[in-house]
């Protein structure tokens, strides 16, 4: 596999980002209207402490992965927390370091502003990703609930 290059999203990445995010949503059996794609893309480039941000991973001349992350306040710390909201690698490159490189990029970016707590969640059936996550992070034991 070619070298993995991870960098912040650029406006010129829109088509590749759209493809990767669509594949990510399909993996989770989810569809979103184009309006949500548009507002998400806009927010990724909106200045603000709590606006989402993103990285894209490239290898072999093509985009092969992406992540979105955002900072938020916490009642448990003076510093913000960093929520790694979305993480996706093309199926044909899984297990080749794309996910780990994207996680590391978020970790390093958060560290630049003193944020130490980078966290995420995944579905319990996502065995491939969980192998990576069990290697690079610790399971907290918390169970998620929501009111959707």
Automatic annotation (TrEMBL):
Domain of life: Bacteria
Protein name: GNAT family N-acetyltransferase
Source species of the chain: Mesorhizobium australicum
Lineage, opening ranks: Bacteria, Pseudomonadati, Pseudomonadota, Alphaproteobacteria, Hyphomicrobiales
